[in-house]
Amino acid sequence: MREVGAQHLICVSALGYPRSIIEEANRIGPTVRLLTLKEIEDMRTFCLNMANTVRRTNFKFTIQTVDKIMVKEVSSSETNALTEIKQININIDSNDKIFETHHSNDLISLNDIINKYILEVYPPLIFTSAGDHIINDINIPDMTINKAWLCYNNRKFEIQTMHINIDIEILPSTDIPLKCFSYCQEFFEGELAWVASAKGNVDDKETEFQIVFRQNKEGILEICSAQAKGSTHINLCVFQNEASAKAHAAFARYNTGLALYEQSKYNEAIRAYDEALNLDSKLALAWNSRGVALHSISKNEEAIQSYNEAIKIDPNYCASWYNSGNIRREMENHGAAINAYDNVIKIDPKHIMAWNNKAASLLKLERFDEAIDACKKAVELNPKYLSAWGLMGVALSSSGRQEEAIEAYNEVLKIDPTQAETWYNKGNALLILGNFEDSIKAYDKAIDLKPEYEDAWNNKGNALRGLQRYEEAIIAYGSALKVNSKLTEAWHNMGLTLEDVARKTEAEAAFAKAKELKYES
């Protein structure tokens, strides 16, 4: 067997395959598909006997209300600048072609937008019975995913919000007998599937259909999608596979949520994820992305709950464990964060960021040896991972191993000499060792990169004082205080240095200022 790159290689056998062939196919991955003649025959039979397996779902909708119309007017200038957001009150006839969207070249009506939206996002299959159903408070920009414009009285407005309530009536469905004329294997929603082309009669007109199906976990072929080619007004579903259609609708809302999140519309994204989860509460992807959106608006507890729901569905969902750990670390709940990162590492021992962030939480808990070990794991995976080298240096320094800390900082600076914090930390390790000259050089590097680095100015002053270069030390403390006049350590150190040069009155004033700011030694 040879590797075929992006090509899909189908191998057919009458009896099956030896273990060596199966293992080789698994090694190459999804570009290779091993089929038996029985599978081919099952697929052929399934295709050729597909009549009456699909139904057309029929509905009609009525717009009840349109309100909360907030717009920005597009100016007529070449820059197409937008004015401030304002509310307008107009009566909209749902048949008037006065709208533009990012994927329509011509003006369309509100009915056109809603019809497309319902077909794509709310297929009537999700309603379990005929009758009336109401979709409340739909926002036009959410429908079009990107942008929509209102063209009115020779003026053009970019719609910010336009809320609509719709009454949908589900009508009896119609069976459509189909005749298959070809079939092949293709990728559908990221997975291999059989795709059959068929013809059927719709409204006395021959229409071509595409039917997608694949084997379920039990090895049974089942339909997962049915579409009428070139038609935007025929909605199909497979009643023998209602759960799949609901899941497909949920996935559509999930994708809408992702698009809204990318536009920083976090609340709208959360609403889309909620709608997806109402359709399919087991969609772990939606729970995870909902957590990400909630975290973006600082609803951390709710975000953690969302991640927990994803983990309940899929205990090996690495992203949700990792995201949960990050939030807990932000909330200073480092024990829980470490537990989350440990679960990530259990699932994926090469998850470098989990090792790194675990080290950061261990460092906060002063579990220095464990933090060092976690950093070592990270740099084994990626010797150029700056964050892990920097954390390792801090952990080594905090445990009294200054020479090793300096080595870790040097690894960072070899890769990126513009890391001001690393120069500062290296200066601190050198200061502790009494190597004042080299510590001053390190602090100067940090200050060159970040002139308002108050702590670097303060510690440079300490190193200068260690060399009895008192006047220079006083200038360094003064520079720190120019950046932050409430830096208590700098006032206290200034007082000590002024005492060293017998400037008693000034020293007393500096100590008084440090005391006023509640300096703690």
Describe the structure in your own words.
With 521 residues, the protein is of the alpha+beta class. Among the domains are: 1-37, no CATH class; 55-174, no CATH class. 50% of the residues lie in helices and 23% in strands. It has 20 helices and 14 strands. The strands form 3 sheets. Strands 3, 4, 5, 6, 7, 8, 9 and 14 form an 8-stranded antiparallel beta sheet that branches. It is elongated. It starts with 8 loop residues before the first strand and ends in a 5-residue tail after the last helix. Mean pLDDT is 80; it is low at 1-8, 123-132 and 237-241.
Secondary structure blueprint with pairings:
Layout lengths: L8 E5 L5 H10 L3 E5 H12 L5 E20 L12 E2 L9 E5 L6 E2 H12 L9 E9 H5 L3 E5 L2 E22 L1 E11 L2 E12 L2 E11 L5 E8 L6 E3 L4 H21 L3 H14 L4 H13 L3 H14 L4 H13 L3 H14 L4 H13 L3 H14 L4 H13 L3 H14 L4 H13 L3 H14 L4 H13 L3 H14 L4 H13 L3 H13 L5
Parallel strand pairs: 1-2
Antiparallel strand pairs: 3-4, 3-9, 3-14, 5-6, 5-8, 7-9, 8-9, 10-11, 11-12, 12-13
Helix pairs in contact: 5-6, 5-7, 6-7, 7-8, 7-9, 8-9, 9-10, 10-11, 11-12, 11-13, 12-13, 13-14, 13-15, 14-15, 15-16, 15-17, 16-17, 17-18, 17-19, 18-19, 19-20
